[in-house]
Amino acid sequence: MTEETLKPDTKQASGPKQQKLAINFLIRFYIVFKILRLYAENNELLQEQTELLYQTLQELKEAAPEINFKIKRESIFFNQARLKFSLANYPIFKFLLEEFRKREIGLLTIEPDVSREELLRAVNVLGLKRTSATPFEDIVSELVQQNVERVRLEKLEASEKLPSPERSAARLFFLSILHLREVSERNKENEQIRLNTTRRLIQSIFNHLVDNESFLLGLTTIKNHDEYTLNHSVNVSLLAVALGRRLGLSRAELVDLGLAAFFHDLGKIETPLEILNKPGQLTDDERKIMELHPHQGAEKLVQLRQFRRLPVSAIHVAMEHHIKEDLTGYPRLKIKNDVNLYSRIVKVCDFFDAITTKRVYRKKTFTRSEALSLMLENIGSEFNPVILKTFVQMMGIFPVGSLVLLNTGEVGLVVENNQETRFLLRPRVKIIVDSQGQKVDGEVVDLTEVDPQTRKYRRTIVKEINPEDYGLEVPDYFLVQAM
User: Fold this and answer.
1) Per the database record, which ranges form the HD-GYP domain (predicted)?
2) 449-483 confidence digits (pLDDT tens)
């Protein structure tokens, strides 16, 4: 974000000019909001950014008689006009929208004669983390205590309180599992499958990934052992769409990819349960039956009544998702010397979800970080290098859903990775075990936070730990968030 975009012309502004000035003010507001979480009020960087925020406010008040920011549904309005954010500024807009909703703030009004010091005090109060059931009332009380009179708030209207994105995402996740079960049952009875429903589900998955990728990736820690194939297929579809998005596929391509991943194991309907769930090693005959499922899956998709509505890539994925990058694996290719791009993507996601799931026939269940390390050992031979590297970058060194031991003695659950390269080892984590070893419903902390006195990080990851060793159920956190 350049200084040029933050210093608009200060002449009397028309509607579009007011839009630009209002958005620039929110960008500056966001910067100060974030810096206040890291540094004390006398910090030089904070002082500099506060001055820039105040200058932007002066430019804005020259162009607009009133300064009102209102939250309405999924938009921010400035003086009754909806602000239109660019793609570059969209993450800032989403952050501010979410933070205002958490604090139940529906309207922010700034009086033109507010001082720089009063504005800083107001932003400081607004930026404090809130855990009580009455965040709005707490903020108003603190603003009064801080003698902030020229920054006023109104509470978010009840009609504007939307269901949490986490609840919507979790509902979509379980609806997808139910739909896949219906698909399996209808296929067994040779009944028509509702492909339009499947496509709408994948489109919704894409929309949720754009808004809250971290939480959806966390939902893939949910493993229903009684319905492994269904749960696994939904996880793979979700991971594949997220990975395809990182690889630069278009929205239409991502929907086709998600659809192909959704049906990649459809052939297992024909595989006997005693083979799928056998505790011991498969016999040669049993393995031959197991390895038929790619052929059977492709055949079932070709035989669908709505076959013309199905992307051809779904047939490729059903047939090829167990073929390695060096073309070994199964089924063996006799003529073809390459595999489909979507098949390569699904193979990565399929392998990752499979080895991080506890199964009766596997002695070890890998943690998410261990799984990535194992996969990197087979880069080039089993997995496509570009696709696997992109997947590892997406998941992070400590993927969402990992348990980590901190230098404070606390145990944290990774809930969001930091995309800045210098902070790859510093994700956001929820404290679930305190320094005394007691399970707690702790706060979510940002491991980039610095103690202003010591100028050192407040917390640092010591190592990843296995949830089974501590009797902790990772999926519980994501399920609670969705309630």
Assistant:
1) 207-407
2) 998 888 999 999 999 999 988 888 898 888 877 66
